[in-house]
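Encode chain A's predicted structure.
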Amino acid sequence: MPIVYICIGIALLLLLMVVFKLNAFISLIIVGVLVGIMEGMTPGEAMTSVTNGLGGTLGSLALVIGFGGMLGKLMADSGGAQRIATTLIRIFGRNRVQFAAVLTAIIVGIALFFETGVVVLIPLVFVIAAEASVPILYIGMPVIAALITMHGFVPPHPGPTAVAGIFHANLGLTLLYGIIIAVPAVILSGPMYTRLFKKEDLEVEIPKGLFTPKHFEEHEMPGFGISVFTALIPVILIAFQAVVEIAMPHSSLVPMAQFLGNPGVALLIAVIVAIFTFGLNRGKKMPELMNSVSESVASIAMILLIIGGGGAFKQVLIDSHVDKYVANLMEGSSMSPLLLAWLIAAILRVVLGSATVAGMTAAGIAAPLVAATQVSPELMVLATGAGSMTFSHVNDAGFWIYKEFFNLSIGKTIKTWSVMVTIASLVGLAGVLIINALIS
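Encoded structure for chain A:
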């Protein structure tokens, strides 16, 4: 019955949003409470779960999305994003601009969490698409595919790192295998998948306030070097934290690295630097810069609420212990440990929405199989990570981040985002099985 209740909840959510056109945030809160009650919670417990999910999601994302929106707006309003876009187009050519965007996203995605990478790169996606005269999703889908795939497969991202601890896997080897598997997963789920769409299917209307379609003259734009440096400050600081924690875990630098590498702090520092590099140093006045900051916050307010609503719905499913129900169904299976880890994580991902919870739960169930079967713990980490990426839909905050930033309908989000992450998941599983066959 728990699975049936979730299906009823998702059907009701689609009914409210698609048929009755009810606001996504309101719909998510209503459905979250109703599903909690159907799962056996009291109305008060269901509301507490919704509140905790909303606060937990926004607590970790409000700073990231808020400061990221400010950085993106300052970069766009100054011409910095256009400078980066025009330089990339000149170096790689218009025919290979998608490759340039994907390469950028892979590099950024190694260091940045998915949510941080999205808010940093979204303005660049809009500008590159405008400068190259291509549909926004032609650039946006491959960029998002790169960010989510690196987030799911590559340490030091929290999911792979935490699961590696459960399986006692070597982080360096996990990182190496993860990059080897991630590259074909990104190519197939991003650039190759976009080839299946007609040009008009990849066109979207940019949400108001996220992008200013102004064309800057050469003398109005900051230099390429300072533009890239300012945009990459969060990447540099978060990568610094990862390097210190991996290479010097007992160093006195660790507390400072953890502070500077916190996504909220890293983006705040980037915003402060951007006020100088994109504003004051170019003759702009503080009131004009603060107007850009205010506009950026106004444009993402509803996006934040909707993402929080997705987190509230997810928390209800977690608090009702649906993961334990699924785990009990899968225990005692004689399936290949790699396939079993992927399958458990995939089912939990679809049911719960949280990739981290799906991965951690699957790892806890499959951990004893490492010693029993001598399977590579590093490949178990990656199989679990691949499973936890499968078919993200309305109970996942990532679904709503993608939907709202690209201003898509639910149907178009499922057709692009949900299918895209599933392709990456299946390619990841195939890569794990191929490497296992080679090293066995």
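The chain has 20 helices and no strands.
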